[in-house]
Amino acid sequence: MPTQARAADPSRAAAYAAIAALVVALALLLWFAFTYVLLVFFGSLLALLLRAPTDWIVRRTGLRDGVALALVGVALAAALAGVGYFFGHTLAAQTTELAARLPEVVQGLVERVRETPWGERLLSYFGGDAQGNSQQMVGNAMAVAGSAAGGVFEALANTLIVIFFAIFIAAQPKLYADGAVRLIPTRGRKRAREVLQAMGDVLQRWLVGQAVLMACIALLTGAGLFLLGAPLALPLALLAGLLNFIPYVGPIAAGIPAVLVAFSEGPQMALYVLALFIGVQSVEGYILEPVVQRKAVFLPPALILFSQMVLGLIGGPLGVIVATPFAAAAMVAVKMLYVQDVLEDK
Question: Quick one: DSSP state of residue 213?
Fold first, then answer.
């Protein structure tokens, strides 16, 4: 027996070493390919969003899952086609104008700031010429914009990957969930299914609520900009709705170009637009969000900001975009696997 134990020790040690090497290789792969991990997560979110109306149709009508998903896809395509037919030309024209006007607006703002003594010192501090030459600053801004435009092709390719990944997951969610669960030891598979189900439920509720909030923000912002007579109301409202997906950071990022464009019409218009964005976000934060997201997981603001900083540091802008749902999923996992299972706090 001792001889057999000694003979088994090298093979066991080799198995442990292989497992350790596999874990290290997987960790390195995740670190260097973290952007693609985030793309997979984003695709999973889109799949959950597609499954929400699909599951509702299946429960209400008894249709087969594939038929219901196809109906959802057709409805989405028809809705996008209708929006494109009625607003596509105007949106494309105004978006092009927005891209062309922003550098001019920045140039005009710099010129106005330069006319003040404190503005001249500020421009000098940030690299502008103390004699009033602000072309360098505008040139730097345009270089950044050009660099961003260079990534359009990559962004389109990633978008297609996410869309097809979401369609595959939404079409056969059980297949992929079962495959993930089979990576867990047998004794933990039941609990793993419960955790995955809970994470999916929370993320689905959060996503549906967030989609409703984004639509409300776009409509309120567009109506307000139209009533104020602000220029380029349609793309600015759409931008405000889309960026509202990112808590705290998104509304600020959407408000900056709106205020800059309004400033080209005069300081008074810029103040009106700023007040509009503050008012819309106040309505969203104090009225709409508590009503729409009351059944979803509560995320403390500090946790959201912390997750945005960490994932933004690792994954860049895409990390900031998915930080909030990532934190929501992590909270569910920590609650069930650590608080309930390890600490035995039910």
Answer: H
Average pLDDT of the chain? 82
Tokens of 313: 């540091």
User: Which residues does 138 contact at the CB level (< 8 Å), separation at least 6?
Assistant: 103, 106, 107, 110
The percent of residues above 70 in pLDDT, for the chain, comes to 82
The predicted model scores a pTM of 0.78
Alpha-carbon distance of 262 to 272, in angstroms, equals 9
Q: 47 and 325 in contact (C-beta within 8 Å)?
A: no
C-alpha span between 230 and 259 (Å, rounded): 10
Return the domain boundaries, the chain: 189-346
Q: How far apart are CA 309 and CA 303, in angstroms?
A: 10
Which pair of structure tokens corresponds to residue 39? 């793309």
Model confidence at 67, in pLDDT bands (50, 70, 90)? very high
> Packing angle between helix 189-228 and helix 317-333, nearest 10 degrees?
140
Name the residue among 260, 208, 234 with its Cα closest to residue 46: 208
Are residues 323 and 34 in contact, defined by beta-carbon separation less than 8 angstroms?
no
Torsion, CA 293, CA 284, CA 159, CA 46, rounded to 10 = 10
Token reading at 292 = 């729409």
Please report the DSSP string for 265-305 in residue order: T-HHHHHHHHHHHHHHHHHIIIIIHHHHTTTS----HHHHH
**237 or 112, which is more confident?**
237
Task: Check residue 126 and report its DSSP letter.
Answer: T
CA distances from 326 to 34, 39, 80, 129, 183 (A): 13, 12, 28, 44, 21
